[in-house]
Amino acid sequence: MSEHLGLDIGGAHLKASDGFTCRSVPFPLWKSPEKLTDELRRLIGQFPQARQIAATMTGELADCFESRAEGVREILSSLEEAAGSRAIRAWQTGGEFFTVAEADEFFELVASANWHALATWVGRADPGGNVLLVDFGSTTTDVIPIESEIPQPAGRTDLERLTSRELIYTGCRRTSLCSLCHEVEIDGRRYGVAAEHFATTHDVALVLETVAESPDSLDTADGRPADREHAFARLARMLCTDKDAFERTEWIRVAEQFQRAQEERIGTAIETVLNRWRCDPTVWVLAGEGEAILRKVIDNRQLAQNSRELVSLNEMLGASHSQAACAFALSRLSEERKL
Any idea what DSSP says for residue 28? Predict the structure, then answer.
């Protein structure tokens, strides 16, 4: 157990790690920002030994806030109230921790800085070498070049990183399928895709049986169970029909088309970053829920053929810590820097 607790405060999940134990709690911040303090208090309370909190966030982008500056300010205020007497520091993209007052003043450096904390910790995978971190999470994908243990992104804000393709706003769970492609093919005919939030990439995974069913979870596009039967129905709704309109084998092919479209987007982004970097990574580090898809993309494009090693955070840390890798990294960085 450690006294240093890392917190990653997102728009859809709250994640915590002390470097030994981790917790991830679904929390749609945009729906209930007034409940954030209580949710954080409950989460922090699961780590009674914690005396130092190292925080990062992406939740400031939630549209319950008028601006990102307001989002950073409100999240920090909730955290201060929830933390009680515990000390708080916030990670910033300059590679250091800020006090709460500094984080409020220089919010641009603190907003959506979780990727930088992870990249800073991951850089140790090959001291003095070139490391490429690819983190495929539930909502977004990060592609971060690291040289001699220091992240070397072309962009630091989300806006800049969207331009540099170091941030791809696509994930393995929450991404709407209509954002991936505009039409699919069934039995030689092309069908347009509804521009509605009827189904997500999690439904694709359920249909393709690459993730386990979670019938008790209602965190889906239609609020119905996250099981395969309901996933087929949600997928069919993307074509404005019902699941019995086609055979299951056809719906599986439709799901595969959506997955290939996402793989193409991620692969193109990785190649863009590599071409600009002009370095062959000696080590690749993969993280996040979608790590299996990343391996497929890398293998199909032969992107890592000149690299010495491909490191899996799922295998190194376990699946739960890999999915909360930014919080894990913060806990370790906080302890190393003796905050």
Answer: -
pLDDT in tens, the chain (339 residues): 789 999 999 999 999 999 999 999 999 999 999 999 999 999 999 999 999 999 999 999 999 999 999 999 999 999 999 999 999 999 999 999 999 999 999 999 999 999 999 999 998 877 788 999 999 999 999 999 999 999 999 999 999 999 999 999 999 999 999 999 999 999 999 999 999 999 999 999 999 999 999 999 999 999 999 999 999 999 999 999 999 999 999 999 999 999 999 999 999 999 999 999 988 899 999 999 999 999 999 999 999 988 889 999 999 888 888 889 999 999 999 999 876
Domain count across the chain: 2
Does residue 312 lie within any of the structural domains? no
Instruction: Note whether residue 243 is domain-resident.
Output: yes
Segments of the chain assigned E as strands: 4-9, 13-17, 22-26, 52-57, 87-92, 96-98, 130-136, 141-147, 150-151, 167-168, 183-186, 189-192, 283-287, 309-312
Query: How do beta strands 22-26 and 52-57 pair?
Result: unpaired
Same domain for 39 and 134? no
Helix orientation angle between 114-122 and 325-336, rounded to the nearest 10 degrees: 60
Q: Identify whether the C-beta of residue 71 lies closer than 8 Å to the C-beta of residue 65.
A: yes
Asked whether residue 120 falls in the same domain as residue 10, the answer is yes
pLDDT at 338: 72
Give me the CATH number covering residue 143.
Answer: 3.30.420.190
Residue 174 lies in a domain: yes
Q: Cα dist. 190→130, 185, 197 in Å?
A: 44, 4, 20
Question: Is residue 62 one of the residues assigned to a domain?
Answer: yes
Domain of residue 74: give its range: 4-126+317-336
Burial of 188 (0-12, 13-18, 19+ CB in 10 A): exposed
In whole angstroms, give the CA distance from residue 28 to residue 15: 13
**In terms of domains, do 213 and 253 share one?**
yes
Based on the domain organization, do 277 and 165 belong to the same domain? yes
CATH code for the domain in which residue 56 is found:
3.30.420.40
